[in-house]
Amino acid sequence: MKIRILGASGGIGAQARTTSLLVDRDILIDAGTGVGDLTLPELRAIDHVFLTHSHLDHVTMLPFLLDTVGADRERPVMVHAQEATLDTLRRHLFNGQLWPDFSRLPTPEAPLMTFQTLPVGGEVALNGRTLRSIPVNHVVPAVGYLARGAKGSLAFSGDTTVTDEFWKVLSATGDLRHVIIETSFMDEDEELSRISKHLCPSMLAGELGKLKSAAKVHITHLMPGREDDIMREIARHIPNNTPRRLERGQVFEL
Ligand SMILES: [Zn+2]
Ligand SMILES: [Zn+2]
After folding, report:
1. Cα(174)–Cα(189) distance, rounded to whole angstroms?
2. What is the pTM of this model?
3. What's residue 182's pLDDT?
4. If you measure from the C-alpha of residue 37 to the centroid of ligand 1, how many angstroms do you get, rounded to a whole number?
5. Is the dihedral of CA 64, 144, 138, 18 positive or negative?
6. Has residue 250 been placed in a domain?
7. Within the chain, how many helices (H) and strands (E) appear?
8. 56 vs 26, 30, 45, 231, CA distance in Å?
């Protein structure tokens, strides 16, 4: 299993792209602006999209993906998420107002997209790869994912603030090799981090204390323009085995 980082920023501008991970050629985890850098053949090859939550920076390219290559495909794109997330997409995005309802178009019998309810904690196996959803703690219902390949597992938090279940699952994952965790803001924005249910470096340090694993830790979802400041604060809190910044284009083999 190969995981390529398409977007790892909390926003846009210059080289920044919002959250998306490409698993092999056919699976996306989140559909942030990084998806827009894929070629048409790469876009056509996507059969599954797993969503962490409904926020726009994580779903924004899904409508364009379907509009651009949906009609060229023989099968619908399967969109996996918990029911609350799918419900938000149905009511507020693919509602015939903001964008066509491609779960019923061009015909209800053969739509461009199908919604697949993945209960929190549920797992999907796809040709030797498994994706398991893990509850996290954000302002809307949200999950992280544990992606397992032949050579180990990678965990991705999506957007979260302080949480216990995520770290429990990771600590019980014997073959865990990489953890991608968000840190959106600087310590001076701790109050904002709590209100918006994200993490700042001091909160991250507390969270990583819950991880019983030697897996490598990578930081994502940094606020554009503050990346170096946030990483410097992280290094101050965690001087040993300091997490690295997740980079767009980075590839993990698992
Ligand atoms: Zn969010
Ligand atoms: Zn986000």
Report:
1. 35
2. 0.98
3. 98
4. 22
5. negative
6. no
7. 8, 14
8. 22, 10, 23, 25
